[in-house]
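thread from #wetlab-drylab

HS: before we spend reagent money on co-crystallization trials with S-adenosylmethionine, can we at least see a predicted complex? here's what I'd submit
DV: go for it
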Amino acid sequence: MFEKNEILELQIEAIGSEGEGIAHVNGYTLFVKDTVPGDRIEAKVVKTGKNFGYARCERIIEPSPDRIEPVCPISKRCGGCQFQHLSYEVELKFKQEKVFNCIKRIGGFKDEEIPMLPIIGCEEIMHYRNKAQFPVGVDKNGETVTGFYAERSHEIVDTTKCCIHVEENELILETLKAFMKKYKISAYEEKINPKTRKPEKAKGLVRHIMTRKGFATGEIGICVVINGNTLPNAAEFTDMMLKAFEGRNDVRITSICVNINKKITNVIFGDELKCIYGEPYIVDMIEDIKFKISPFSFYQVNPAQTRKLYGKALEFAGLTGEEVVWDLYCGIGTISLFLAKKAKEVYGVEIVPAAVENAKENAKLNGIENAYFTVGKAEDEAKKLPKPDVIVVDPPRKGCDEKLLETIMNYKPERVVYVSCDPATLARDLKVLCGDGGYKLEEVQAVDQFSRGVHVESVCLMTRKEK
Ligand SMILES: C[S@@+](CC[C@H](N)C(=O)[O-])C[C@H]1O[C@@H](n2cnc3c(N)ncnc32)[C@H](O)[C@@H]1O
């Protein structure tokens, strides 16, 4: 066992599930952030446990051939990206293996039972993210700061630049800071309880700014989250933002909203939304379908990859025009509307009311009359829907609720298409559906939606073993 602060020479062998490098010394595992398999490093032990510990890279003795220079100057402090120092080729290999290994270890599948297609990588790994949520706070000198939380912390790394977000965010953040300075508008300050690591006291007004850009339409939406009832000088804020983008014909601000969140919480949005300019949504397009997207609604963050992901989901659904399809966890109806064009009827279920409102409007906007949407929990609402031939699920990271898996198994649709942003919960659910559930795993496709980050999206097709 090692002592805290002990200096070790380590050979990094693999990448851990959170993107850290892994080294072994006499059978003991050490995780080292910002390192790459093949690096030989000098590291300081920072924490030790019974089975594994953590060390900090102090010096790279010999860099791995897969190590690259991060494009981002703050990549080590910011908690956003984990792979700025790793070649994209190795990042993709890691993600492919992550999905495979989760299905094998957590799902209990044998190698030959995992029909994995090669991961679909990004053509563009920079400036791909259409949505950003920046915390706003105060530094030691009392100046307003915006940027990103440092990893596992509430400390804001002050920056207006980010190489995975859209470049327009820089101008939006600079304009917000100038507005707050000019009109003496305070930034949110919270006191974190060191034991619970949760915020316990707070003051100041502006707590977050969220931006979303429609890549196909150029529409930009801004939402300022405040710890109060009104944003003072809201008209001036709108003027400043519009002026900042004056003369640009590639993008335009079409929505500015204020969200009220007076709770002391880590949850970004409160319930109340006030539109102070334009519409309470932006419009974007995927292929030939238009979508209205409210600030509350989920919308995939990487438009170029979303097309490929949805394309696979649609292919896996294998529709002929005759099927009744459920699209559970449907958000604003993105997948539903693609399915509806090829199916008899589509039933979407989604928990966020604003997203369902968007989904209904989106069906109308695109002249789609065979897609129906319900607000509620998928696990409660699905069993009230007409019997499906195909079920598509696209749950949040925690995966599908057990009750929903039971419903799927009771209804026995021919095909289940599972879109997942967390391979661990995907694997857990596959174990149920392909175990007692009577389904066979037919295809597994990983899609890189989050380049330079550790998360990976995937889509799987399951078919019934007994017809
Ligand atoms: C990963 S997103 C997928 C949305 C949509 N399929 C898309 O591609 O844009 C997951 C969605 O599930 C919703 N959600 C979370 N828990 C839910 C539940 N228990 N029942 C229904 N929807 C839920 C979220 O609000 C979110 O819109």
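DV: Residues 131-293 form a domain with the OB fold (Dihydrolipoamide Acetyltransferase, E2P) fold (CATH 2.40.50.1070).
HS: ok that's useful, forwarding to the group
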